[in-house]
Amino acid sequence: MAPESMSELGKRLQRLSPKSRTPILALLVSILILRSRLIDAPGLVYTRLREAAKGKRPAPEDIEEALQKVYIDEADGSKTLLVPYGKNVNKINIKPTPPSALASSSKSFPLLSSSHKPSLSRSFLRQLSSILRIAFPSLTCRESFILVLHSFFLILRTVLSVGVAKLDGRIVKDLVSANGKGFLKGLGLWFLLAIPSTYTNSMIRHLQSSLSLRMRTRLTRYTHDLYLSSFPHLRYYRVGLEGGLEGVDQYITADIAAFLDSLSTLYGNLIKPSTDLVLFTLSLSRSLGPSGTALLFLNYYVTASILRAVTPAFGRLAEVERRLEGEFRAGVGRVGREAEEIAFYDGGKRELDILWRAYTRLIKHVNSIFKIRIAYEWTEDYVIKYLWSAAGYGLISIPVLMGKTRSLGVQASPSSKPNTDSDGPDNAVANRTENYISSRRLLLSLADAGGRLMYAYKDLLELSGLTTRLYTLLSTLHSLPRLPDITNASDEITLEHVDVGVPPLNFVLADDEYEVQATINPPLVRDLTLRLRKGEHLMITGSNGVGKTAIARVLAGLWAPQGGVVQRPDEVLVVPQRAYMVAGSLLDQIIYPHSYPQYVKSGKTEKDLMEILESVHLAYLPAREGGWRTRKEWRDVLSGGEKQRMGMARVFYHKPKFAVLDECTSAVSSDVEGRMYEHAKSLGITLITISLRPSLTRYHTQLLSLSGDGSGRTSLTRVGTAEERMGIDREIINLESKLGEVESWRQRLEELNGQLGIQKH
Ligand SMILES: Nc1ncnc2c1ncn2[C@@H]1O[C@H](COP(=O)(O)OP(=O)(O)OP(=O)(O)O)[C@@H](O)[C@H]1O
The ABC transporter domain covers which part of the protein (predicted)? Predict the structure, then answer.
C-alpha cells in the first residue's frame, strides 16, 4: 500500500467514531497478519509464489538432487529441509531444541504416580502448564500473538452479538409500530453489522486452526528431539525396555494432534461463553433489577451443581480410548511390517482374530462412552435448554407483569425518543415488544452460552485425559537417566570385571517418590575381563540366549554394565543380524547412518561405493535397480543375504577401528563370508564376531566362550596357540597317511569292479 493512501486511510479512520472504528481496525490488523504470514512462512507458500512469479521452476535434476540431499546443514547449527512440492522445492529451516533447553525443561516433568487418574485437579494444571511452556516458549512468540488476536476476535464476536440482539429488538419494534423508515434503517444497519460479524467468525476459525498447527509443530519438534536423542540418552531405544512405554508412535502422531485440537477448541468454547455470560448477564441485569439478577445467579449455581454431580469421568475415559486406539494401530502396523512372514505361514486368519479383538475392545469402550453420554447429555439439555429458558421467561415476565416498563436492552434512538408510553397504548406495546425481543434473544444466547460452558466442562475433563497421555510420554522420556560414557581416545577395548544383564525397568513409582526397581535382573555374563588391542580379532561364541548380543549392546553403549568398567574408542560399529534398511536411495543404504551431505563431505565418490559393493559381491545392484538414486522399499527388495552383505558394505564404507559383527553374515554363503572377513582385516578393521559358526574361528586371534549353564562364566582362549597348532599338525599327519592309502583303495575298487564285470569307460 502506498504511503499517501496509508495516511489518507489514517485520517479517515480518525474521523470515524471510536465504536465503529474497532471492527475496521480489527479487519486491517488481521489482513496485515495474513499478509505477513505469506511473506514470513519459511518456504512453503512464499517460495512457490516467488518462483512462480519469476517463472523459474527447478529442473527435474534439481528436484532429484533435493530428494537425495534431504537437508542442508546451516552455519548456525540448524538444518534446512528440502521438500519437493509439486514442481518446486520448498526450504524449511528447522532449529533443533538445544540440549540445555531439554535438560532444563526436564525439571517440569516429574513422573506421575502409578495410581494417577486424570481429573480436574492441581496435578492437571501442573501437567498442562509444563506442556504449554513448550508450545508457548515466550510471551513474545508468534503463538502468544495469535492467541491474543484470537481472544480479541472471540470477545469482539460477543460484543457484536449483543449489538445484533439489540438491533433485532429495534427492528421488531419498528415493525410493530409500523415505522417504515425506522424499519428500513434498522435493516440497513443489520446488513452492515453482518460484515464484521461474519468476518469475525471466519477469523476465529482460521486463528484457532493456525494456532493449533503452530503448537503441534512446536510440540512435535520438541518430542522428536527428545525421543530421537543420541548418546548419552538413546531414548528411542530405551523408552520401551527401561521406560515401560509401548506404542510411542500413537503418542507422537495421533495423541499430540488430539491434545491440541481439544485444547484450541476448548479455548474458544471457554472464552466465548464466559464472555457471553458476563456481557449478557450485565445487559439483562439492567432490566431485571437486583432481585432478578440474584435469581439468575441462583439459577447458574443450581444448574452447575446438578451437572457436576452427573458428569462421568470423561478424562479417564478419553485416556483409555487413546490407549486402545494405540493398541489397534500397533496391530495394523505389525501386519504391514511383517506381511511376508505372516503370508508364508498363511497367518491372515490368525492376525484377523488379533486385530478384530483389538478393534472390538476399542469399539466397546467408545460405545460405552456414547451410552454414558446419552444420560449426561439428556440431563444437560434438559437443564440448559428448558430449565434455563423457563427461568428466563419467568425473569422477563417480572417487570412486564408488574407493569414496569423499564427500558431493556437497546435504548430507543434519539429520533424515537418522543415515543414514550404516554404517547399511547401502541407505543407501550411496541416498547414492551422491543424489550421482550431483546431480552428473549439475550436469554436464548445466555442459555446457549451456558450449554457451551457445560460442554466445555466435559471437554475440559477429556482434555485432562489427553494431557495425561502426552505428559506421560514426555515425563517417561525425560526420566531416562544418562548412559555412562564409555568412550576414550585409546585404540583398545577394555572390560574389567564387567557384569552384563538386561537393564531393569528404570523407575517405578510408589507414592510419588522415585524408586529404583528393587529386583535387578540377574547378570547374563559375570565378571568379564578382557583387553582387545587393534589387530586382535575376537570371536564370541556360546549357545543361544547366553548373552552374546548382550555383550554387543554393552560395547555399543545401549545397555549400561551392571558392574565393572568398560572403555572403548569412539569408532566402534555394531552390525546386527537383522540388517536395517533406511528409507531412501540405494546410495543411502551403503552410507547409513551418514546422510548425503556427510557423504559428499567425506570426499568419497560413486566409484568408491562401487568398489565397496564389489567387495561384498553386490556390484550388480546399481545397474539392476536403475542407479544409485533409485528409491525403493529396500527391506522388501533385497534378499536376506543381500541385506546382510549391505550391512558389511557399511562397515567397509565407514572403516571403523572396531566392528562388532553380531551373526551378521549368517545368511551369506561361506565363500563370500570368508572373503568379506579377509577384506575387513585388510582394511585394518579389528573384528569382534559373535557367531556359532566354528568356520569363522580362523579369522580371529581370541575366542571368548560363554558358558551355557546359567552361571554367566566365560573363558577366553587364544586361537592359534602351540597346543592348537599341534592339534592341527596331528590332523594333517592323519590326513596325509590316509591320502597315502588312496592308491591301494583304488586298486581294490578296480578288482571288485572286475569281479562284478563292471566296465569302466
Ligand atoms: N529386552 C529384553 N528383555 C528381556 N530379556 C531380554 C531382553 N533382551 C535379551 N533378553 C534375554 O537375555 C538373554 C540373552 O540375550 P542375547 O540376545 O544376548 O542372547 P544371544 O546369546 O545373543 O542368543 P542368540 O545366539 O540366540 O542370538 C536371552 O535369554 C534373552 O531372552
Answer: 508-734
